[in-house]
């Protein structure tokens, strides 16, 4: 989508206007790519990036992420980095309760 289409989409769907600055985002079952921003930031892989967000969100909500995997990742990156990831997970709505 171009900037005007993104702006209209955000307004029509009552979404945060800050989305106009994103390379892309997921809304419902749609991946929205802001071609102008993605081009300007060199985000040539934005579609795959957003698809991965959707896959991870679904896996987390369905409880398909193995606790051993999470524990291993936490140990490898350390408590400080893990707390940042937990906050981003919560903020982005990747929890079962979101």
Topology:
Blueprint: H1 3-12, E1 24-27, E2 30-33, H2 35-41, H3 46-61, H4 67-92
Antiparallel strand pairs: 1-2
Strand content: 5-15%
Distance between the termini: 27 Å
What is the structural class?
mainly alpha
Percentage of residues in helical conformation: 55-70%
Structural Rg: 16 Å
Largest sheet: 2 strands, antiparallel
Strand tally: 2
Flag low-confidence runs: none
Overview of the structural elements:
By secondary structure, the protein is mainly alpha-helical. Helices cover 60% and strands 8% of the residues. It has 4 helices and 2 strands. A two-stranded antiparallel ribbon has the order 1-2. A hairpin with a 2-residue loop joins strand 1 (24-27) and strand 2 (30-33). The longest helix is centred in the C-terminal third of the chain and has 26 residues, at 67-92. It is elongated. The two termini are 27 Å apart. The model has no long low-confidence stretch (mean pLDDT 88).
